[in-house]
Design brief:
The complex is a heterodimer of chains A (about 550) and B (about 270). By secondary structure, chain A is α/β, with parallel strands linked by helices. Chain A folds into three domains: about 1-235, P-loop containing nucleotide triphosphate hydrolases (Rossmann fold, 3-Layer(aba) Sandwich), CATH 3.40.50; about 235-275 and about 520-550, no CATH class; about 285-505, P-loop containing nucleotide triphosphate hydrolases (Rossmann fold). Chain A is built from 23 helices and 19 strands. In chain A, the strands form four sheets. In chain A, strands 5-6-7-3-8-9 form a six-stranded mixed sheet, sandwiched between helices. In chain A, strand 1 (about 1-10) and strand 2 form a beta hairpin. Chain A is globular, with a radius of gyration of 25 Å. Chain B has one domain. Chain B contains eight helices and two strands; from the N terminus they run αααββααααα. In chain B, a hairpin with a 2-residue loop joins strand 1 and strand 2 (about 105-110). In chain B, helix 1 runs parallel beside helix 8 (about 245-265), helix 3 packs antiparallel against helix 4 and helix 5 (about 140-150) packs antiparallel against helix 6. Classes of the chains: A alpha/beta (about 550), B mainly alpha (about 270).
Chain lengths: ~550, ~270
């Protein structure tokens, strides 16, 4: 059995342009289908149609075509924000909500509750309150709550976008269990990196049209379509893409394990290189943190005697699982939190007596959700907000040039709230280019971005670095972090484990095991093959491999 | 304090009570504080409340509540003092003087009775709010819905009330995050005049509105995904049962109610 989408066209208003145009494809039973496409390609609208929100709840649009499912077929959705989806204070309350709505008897309710708790291996969470769960646990409860309704199709819309590496691993294992149980699943996410092992079938959409419909292996071989769709693919698949240009008979791989086998057959055996240490900066930095300890009112110690130093013109990535103290740490840098003990000093002066707005002239923090930041009436006004708030002179010509450079010029009179999530995020980050701050802190800057926007983000970070500014990045996108950072600062349970040049930190396998974060494939494979240097991006890795072929 | 005016997870005596017992307590206390005007009776009620808070270890949350509404309570006291300034009451005066206004003799009289009136009204308001907060602090929104359902309140109403208590903490948290985000971008909300501060708070209301609207939309979509249909008869996975603790608590608050009423009639000083 399969579920067929036939010739669906949809526009939100009769005068508007179609968001979806003549869309046709099949969702195969007991398989995992990925729907990918750049921001604005119509993925969210498609989810609303598949789940019946359009036309049942949103009925004012123009809808034609059909989604052919038999009568009684049930479809459930897991969204990217479980806090907006879960109804109920406790885990049991939240899981029971959907099955109570369909009026099951007491015995059936209990049976389904036990079934999903066992299936997802979350029995230990059943007496907890939802508010106390980690991001991954909360998303697992969300999945349990919809699975309890026994849906024929489970749709997951960017289910890991706000999760840390541990949370992603948990959802990966949940998806593997579902796949093994024969659950038909649709994952809508432009980041294939985390679920490439699980997916069977890929549908690619651009501008509301299907431009790819095929098997996963075919998708990973089609480099042009990957680029067109702006999909983040696993770094191992990127290595294959670049390496296959140099080695034409290379067998396809998209996992680090397969990459090891394929490359091992072609590379010469190398002796471990002599230990190379990147020179570490000796000075204290123009932004320094000494003995920083933060104890909250409830007694929780979020930071414990953290020392750190930041130099101009460096990109520093802060790594750690959720709860390690990353956000608490950066909130001390810009004054949102005040230390219980220790000091934060900028250019030798403590920042304690300054207001957050005063500190922002030197140290600016861009929040994770752009919707917390944007409030101007036009994109142009939003771009120049920091400059105006801080009294920094700017020219209109310069602002328009920036908008043009990042493809926002045609939106300059648009209400920022109407932009796609990725564009909103780029806009809030661009606005700091017009600020006087010498230190720019970006908290999860890739949220909602497709690969095209991520490339633009890398450009912006490079531009800031070239101007001699310090960029501090918190991100769970580990390959990206290793690509752009000069230094890494690793936190674990509120303590600093290490800060140093990324080459030196990458050599500390023990630390990455302690924080349960995998090194990016290029780093792990460089070490595995004893390459003369540890590589941090795909291009340099491929160069090294090509130079050492047997 | 981000957990103000919301449920606090604890394992206290109050938390273990049947929500219906707590609703009954709230209703009874609301009625009592609406008509009791005797200072002695109200002080007795305050003492009972304090014992309940002490036993349940929620005293610190009540101190927070008091600090948050102290301006309101002070305003009530000052209002009654101001209203009574030109009326001479029976009883001792704090300060009294006579003067001529447009040729007419007037008396300016700051009486102990006006202060008493102000204190009584402030105490009534505080007890009303704290009775509500006592219930909210110890009853999560799922229990609120369950309790209301067992009282045969229609599900759309019970669910709506529960949803309000689920959303309030979200909005408080969103507001705090937006304040942080805007000040991080250079919007001054600490070291500025009251007028600028007010203007900047208005600025913050726009992203808050967007976030609340977007959350509202996400929640209504989630209701659809969970097939919430008020026309369909719902069942319930959990049920609530009263225990001996509910009996003890009910006995205490009934005794307290009777004592308060007796004290009211024995020590009543008419306020008008």
């Amino acid at each position: 059995m399969s579920f067929a989408v036939k010739n669906i066209t949809y526009q939100y208003t009769p005068e508007g342009k179609p968001i979806l145009s003549d869309l046709s494809f099949e969702i195969r039973e007991a398989e995992v289908t990925a729907i990918v496409g750049p921001s604005g390609s119509g993925k969210s609208t498609l989810v609303n149609i598949l789940s019946g929100v359009i036309p049942e709840l949103l009925s004012q649009g123009v809808y034609s075509g059909s989604f052919d499912v038999e009568k009684g077929v049930s479809i459930s959705v897991v969204t990217q924000a479980p806090e907006n989806q879960l109804f109920g204070y406790g885990v049991e309350d939240a899981i029971a909500f959907g099955i109570e709505n369909i009026g099951l008897d007491e015995e059936e309710l209990s049976e389904r509750m036990e079934y999903v708790l066992d299936l997802l291996n979350i029995q230990h969470l059943r007496k907890r309150s939802v508010a106390t769960l980690s991001g991954g646990q909360r998303q697992a409860v969300c999945i349990a709550s919809v699975l309890a309704m026994r849906p024929d199709i489970l749709i997951m819309d960017e289910p890991v976008s706000s999760l840390d590496p541990n949370g992603k691993k948990m959802i990966q294992s949940v998806l593997n269990m579902l796949r093994a149980s024969g659950q038909t699943t649709v994952i809508v996410d432009n980041n294939l990196d985390w679920f490439s092992d699980i997916v069977d079938h890929v549908i690619g959409m651009v501008d509301g049209k299907v431009v790819f419909d095929g098997e996963k292996e075919t998708f990973f071989r089609d480099f042009q379509i990957q680029k067109k769709l702006g999909v983040t693919i696993p770094q191992a698949a990127e290595i294959y893409r670049e390496l296959s240009r140099k080695i034409p008979d290379l067998e396809m791989f998209y996992t680090p394990e397969d990459a090891k086998m394929e490359i091992a057959m072609r590379i010469k055996s190398l002796e471990p290189p002599a230990l190379q240490r990147e020179p570490e900066s000796e000075d204290e930095g123009f932004l320094s943190v000494t003995g920083l300890t933060k104890t909250f009112a409830d007694g929780f110690r979020a930071l414990i005697e953290v020392d750190a130093a930041f130099q101009p013109g460096k990109v520093v990535a802060i790594l750690g699982q959720n709860g390690s103290g990353k956000t608490t740490f950066v909130k001390h840098l810009n004054g949102l939190l005040r230390p219980t003990q220790g000091t934060v000093a900028y250019q030798g002066l403590e920042t304690t007596k300054k207001s957050v707005a005063q500190i922002s002239r030197d140290i600016i923090l861009v929040f994770q959700h752009p919707e917390h930041m944007i409030f101007e009436e036009t994109v142009y006004a939003e771009l120049t907000f920091c400059a105006r708030a801080q009294g920094v002179p700017f020219s209109e010509e310069e602002a328009l040039k920036t908008l043009e450079q990042y493809q926002l010029l045609e939106d300059k009179e648009e209400l920022p709230a109407n932009l796609s999530m990725g564009k909103k995020h780029i806009l809030t980050i661009l606005s700091v280019l017009f600020s006087s701050a010498e230190v720019v802190i970006l908290d999860e800057p890739t949220l909602g971005m497709d690969l095209h926007l991520k490339d633009k983000l890398v450009d912006i970070i490079q531009a800031l670095k070239n101007r001699g500014k310090t960029v501090i990045v918190i991100s769970h996108e580990i390959p990206l972090v290793f690509d752009i950072a000069d230094q890494l600062l690793i936190l674990d349970e509120g303590r600093k484990l290490v800060q140093g040049a990324k080459g030196n930190v990458a050599a500390r396998q023990d630390i990455f095991e302690q924080i349960n974060i995998d090194l990016p494939p290029v780093v792990a494979l460089s070490k595995y093959f004893n390459l003369p240097r540890v590589c941090f991006d795909v291009e340099s890795f491929v160069e090294e491999v090509a130079a050492n072929l047997a | 304090m981000r957990d103000f005016l919301q449920y606090v997870e604890m394992d206290s005596f109050l938390h273990r009570l049947d929500p219906r017992t707590k609703f009954a307590f709230f209703i009874m206390m609301s009625v009592l504080t609406s008509f009791i005007k005797s200072g002695v009776a109200l002080l007795f009620l305050l003492a009972v409340f304090m014992v309940i808070w002490q036993v349940s270890h929620i005293g610190k949350y009540m101190i927070t509540l008091l600090s948050k509404i102290k301006a309101l309570l002070l305003f009530i006291i000052l209002l009654w003092l101001a209203l009574g300034l030109f009326t001479v009451n029976i009883g001792p005066a704090i300060y009294r003087t006579s003067f001529q206004l447009f040729g007419t003799p007037r008396q300016f009289s700051l009486d102990w009775f006006d202060l008493y009136k102000g204190l009584v009204f402030a105490l009534r308001i505080f007890l009303m709010i704290s009775a509500f907060y006592t219930v909210i602090l110890s009853t999560n929104f799922s229990q609120i819905i369950l309790g209301l359902r067992s009282w045969k309140v229609p599900y759309p109403i019970s669910f709506g009330i529960g949803l309000v208590f689920q959303i309030i903490p979200m909005i408080i948290s969103e507001f705090a995050t937006i304040m942080e985000a805007q000040s991080s971008r250079g919007l001054e909300i600490e070291k500025c005049s009251a007028l600028t501060k007010m203007k900047n708070y208005i600025i913050i209301s726009l992203p808050l509105m967007f976030r609340v609207l977007s959350k509202g939309q996400a929640i209504s979509l989630a209701m659809h995904h969970y097939k919430l249909d008020f026309k369909v008869k719902r069942t319930s996975y959990k049920s609530i049962r009263s225990s001996w603790m509910d009996g003890v608590f009910s006995a205490v608050f009934i005794a307290a109610t009777v004592t308060t009423v007796v004290l009211h009639y024995r020590f009543n000083i008419p306020l008008s």
